[in-house]
Amino acid sequence: MTLPPDPALARLKARVADIPLGAKAEEIGTVLAIGDGLATVAGLPGARLNEILEFPGGTLGFVLSLEEEVLHAAFLDPVIGVGAGDRVIRRDALLSVPVGEALLGRVVDPLGRPLDGLPAPDAAERLPTERPAPSIIERDFVSEPVETGLLVVDALFAVGRGQRELIIGERQTGKTAIAVDAIINQAGSDLVCIYVAIGQRMTAVRRVIEAIHGRGASGLTIVVMAEATAEPGLRWLAPFAATSMAEWFRDRGRHALIVYDDLTKHAATHRELALLSGQPPGREAFPGDIFYLHARLLERSAKLSAARGGGSLTALPIAEIEAGNLSAYIPTNLISISDGQIVTSATLFAANQRPAVDIGLSVSRVGGKAQWGAVKSQAGRLRLDYAQYLEMKMFARFGGFGDAAMKARMARGERIGALLAQDRFAPLATVTQIALLLALNEGHLDEVPPDRIPALKSVLPDILAAEPVLDTLRARPEKLDDAERSALLAAVRTALDRP
Question: Residue 249: its pLDDT value, please?
């Protein structure tokens, strides 16, 4: 009697046949000491920088620095049950992260592990966290704008696709709000957004996630989170891992925007790990490689040439300063690496001018090269006129101006300030911005009380949406013709006539 074949036995035989036979060499190290998220390990002569190590209990770490006899490994998981004398195994793999479309709309940690309660992203491809920046020959000129929806940014300090624009200011002056508004304004666009929380409080990150998800921008957004209570290794890794996720889109001819919130805390984490590993401290106790750390990170943001697909990665790094000191070590490093900075002012924030952007200290080194032509033509004198108004306003406290021309400048400055003020989560479309700037330049706002301008900005978009003659301007606002100019001014007059 012949027995039927057993499927379980057949599967077992197949598994046994796939097992490679023979000797296998394995390096095993020993933990010498552990302190504050960093381990000193001996006995792994073949280990490489950024190589993954496995500690007892499956705890993961990576090689942060190498010395002649020992190496220093930063933990990626909570240190539980690991102590001196334990063995360490090389994974023979460098740090990498999952990338691809599956990450869109998700909240993950720097290793791609889900933090939103959903299953792990089904990403078939992985990229190293440390990747070389594009070479000069692989780059192209920054010429396309990133529309942030903030009039003060789009009109005065235009950000281009492939640019690195630093957002810097004191604590609680609206730095994150500017970046989040820029992300929210991309709802419905082709720009993929990545928000990286480095050492932030969980409550602050939750508010950002709720703002993004509640306003329809989550479909093309990835949130990478390494909160303040995370292991130092995760906080150190977060910006590099998120950049690799963004580069996957850039390398496929798409456009991405990444927000690092913030690099000041990232520098503090690097200083913490460097001092624990025995590196000599330099200025403000930071190690000597702190400039290279952020330079190699931000240089990965670029506009690629047509031969490389024409994609772009735009960076909005955030940095925090104390007491308005822009000359501190980390701020000056970041300013020298980036292509401009948007400086927020505690004085303006306290005066309820939001966004609290200091137009005197802010600059974009790409500027008009990445600005729509129609916006550029209308915003030509805006910065100079507003700067003159602010200066005259300061001296006006000592006495009034009797000159009619001076009074007219003051009145115009008040209306510019009202135009530049903008509520959170209320982005303005480019056509709306052009209409407002055109109305200002043509004198249509000279008699409008400044307190009426917020109402004008709220009703104007609906009126403009009903104008078919503006369809070309909406698609590509490079130039204003006479018909479009007339339609924009008529829409502003209609909005002003409404009660």
Answer: 97
